[in-house]
């Protein structure tokens, strides 16, 4: 039984050793018929469930991958937005600090100027009665002392806030507490401002010692080349400056901080204060002007000129068309309730005395225009678009030809004047005209030198008539 080289070849296939692994190729074993039968006989419902689970797993995997990418993109976007918001907020707070710093610096300079006005002008003039009287000094400087006290307190409040500065520092509440004081003190000062300038001009020409005093003070280096008028105009300009700065500060305050609403309230208060001061000043100037005219008027017209609630709206020269058809130069006064015409006369060395001729009540009155190119024309029509006011009820009479309003009435004598001949209403004149008809139907025709002057008169008269309705 020993295998040798001689008998190796004679071995039978059954006794030959198995082939080596190096000479055997890898082949997949064939499935037996039993295994094939088991797969073919796999339950269909279970196969569908397996397929569903596989698809669900793949879809969930894709969903999780997509969600991961979206989450990453959202994180990148939120980071970029946060960086932009931070940059924008930093810019806003930086701008806010600059505005607050400007507000504080200008207030410091303003208070310094008011104190310098007291030290360099008011106190020396009060101490030396040989230059100006007490009344002259009071008119010239009004209530400057009260303004110094008011703004010194305001400056101390601002300095406290600036010393404890942080991006959301409050400023609006300070100004909200000062609104009523602004109205009171600045209305008095601004109303007196024109009188102050007039007093300075009068004293410079009539009091040599006052001129010398102003010249000496102007040489002081502390005045920084500013004269008395430069100091006096500073309070007039201060309230509008507050409104501008606080409005800018409110715009640069982020939504949600407490100071934003307080700043908006302060801006509204300052706007009302400026409006109140301007209106009060106009009323006082109007009353002062009415008193001056009253003092230069003789007769009952002068005594009746000053009435409670009456305001002077406009005054100036214009031409009144007389009953003889000749234009007469008059000086008109438009009040909020009436329109008066007068002639300026001189008596001796006194000038600008007034002799009143007509008083036209504006209550229930109407207004019409007449262009110079259509005076006396039956077919031409006006094209100038100025305000026209008609009375609530149709007055008596008929409308003069050429006037731009149906229903304008005129008395028979007026119509006779208008159409009696070539001289009536100066038909050859090229001056723009307008007609006022009172509630009794009496008409008054006036001419102005330019169309702009007529427009100014007509607009003012129209507004006065509307306010009386």
Poorly predicted parts: 11-16, 371-402, 404-428
Helix content: 40-55%
Structural class: alpha+beta
**Spatial order of the strands in the main sheet?**
4-3-2-1-7-6-5
How would you state the average pLDDT, rounded? 77
Shape: flat
Beginning-to-end CA distance, first to last residue: 148 Å
Radius of gyration: 48 Å
Total count of strands = 7
Provide a count of the helices.
Answer: 13
- Encode the helix/strand succession as letters: HHHHHHHHHHHEEEEEHEEH
Beta content comes to 5-15%
Biggest sheet descriptor: 7 strands, antiparallel
Word description of this protein:
The structure is a single chain. With 469 residues, the chain is α+β, with helices and mostly antiparallel strands. The chain has helices spanning 33-40, 44-127, 134-141, 144-163, 172-176, 179-206, 208-218, 228-232, 234-251, 258-295, 300-305, 412-419, 451-468; strands at residues 312-321, 327-335, 338-347, 350-361, 366-370, 433-437, 443-447. The chain has a 7-stranded antiparallel β-sheet. A hairpin with a 5-residue loop joins strand 6 (433-437) and strand 7 (443-447). Helix 3 crosses helix 6 (179-206). The longest helix is centred in the first third of the chain and has 84 residues, at 44-127. It is flat and about 130 Å long.
């Amino acid at each position: 039984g020993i295998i040798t080289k001689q008998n190796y070849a004679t071995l039978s296939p059954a006794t030959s050793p198995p082939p080596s692994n190096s000479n055997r190729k890898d082949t997949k074993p064939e499935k037996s018929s039993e295994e094939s039968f088991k797969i073919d006989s796999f339950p269909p419902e279970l196969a569908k469930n397996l397929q569903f689970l596989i698809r669900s797993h793949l879809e969930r995997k894709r969903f999780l991958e997509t969600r991961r990418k979206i989450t990453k993109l959202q994180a990148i976007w939120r980071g970029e937005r946060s960086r932009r918001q931070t940059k924008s907020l930093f810019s806003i707070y930086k701008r806010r600090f600059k505005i607050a710093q400007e507000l504080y610096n200008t207030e410091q300079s303003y208070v310094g100027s008011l104190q310098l006005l007291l030290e360099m002008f008011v106190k020396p003039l009060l101490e030396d009665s040989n230059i100006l009287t007490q009344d002259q000094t009071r008119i010239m400087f009004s209530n400057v002392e009260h303004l110094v006290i008011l703004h010194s307190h305001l400056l101390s409040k601002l300095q406290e806030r600036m010393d404890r500065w942080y991006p959301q520092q409050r400023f609006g509440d300070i100004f909200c507490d000062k609104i009523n004081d602004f109205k009171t003190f600045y209305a008095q000062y601004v109303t007196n401002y024109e009188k102050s300038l007039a007093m300075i001009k009068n004293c410079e020409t009539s009091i040599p010692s006052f001129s010398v005093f102003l010249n000496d003070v102007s040489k002081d280096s502390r005045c920084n080349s500013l004269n008395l008028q430069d100091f006096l105009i500073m309070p007039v300009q201060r309230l509008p400056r507050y409104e501008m700065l606080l409005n800018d500060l409110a715009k640069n305050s982020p939504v949600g901080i407490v100071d934003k609403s307080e700043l908006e309230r302060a801006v509204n208060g300052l706007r009302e204060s400026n409006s109140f001061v301007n209106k009060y000043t106009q009323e006082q100037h109007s009353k002062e002007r009415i008193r001056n005219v009253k003092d230069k008027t003789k007769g009952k017209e002068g005594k009746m000129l000053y009435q409670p609630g009456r305001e002077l709206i406009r005054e100036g020269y214009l031409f009144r068309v007389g009953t003889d058809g000749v234009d007469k130069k008059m000086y008109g006064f438009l009040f909020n309730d009436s329109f008066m015409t007068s002639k300026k006369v001189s008596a001796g060395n006194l000038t600008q005395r007034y002799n009143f001729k007509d008083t036209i009540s504006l209550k229930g009155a109407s207004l019409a225009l007449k262009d110079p190119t259509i005076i006396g024309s039956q077919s031409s029509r006006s094209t100038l678009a100025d305000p026209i006011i008609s009375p609530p009820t149709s007055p008596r009479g008929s409308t003069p030809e050429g006037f731009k309003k149906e229903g304008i009435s005129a008395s028979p004598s007026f119509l006779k004047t208008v159409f009696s001949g070539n001289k009536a209403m100066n038909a050859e004149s090229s001056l723009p005209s307008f007609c006022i008809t009172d509630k009794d139907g009496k008409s008054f025709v006036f001419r102005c030198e330019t169309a702009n002057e007529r427009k100014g008169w007509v607009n003012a008269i129209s507004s006065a008539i509307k306010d009386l309705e």
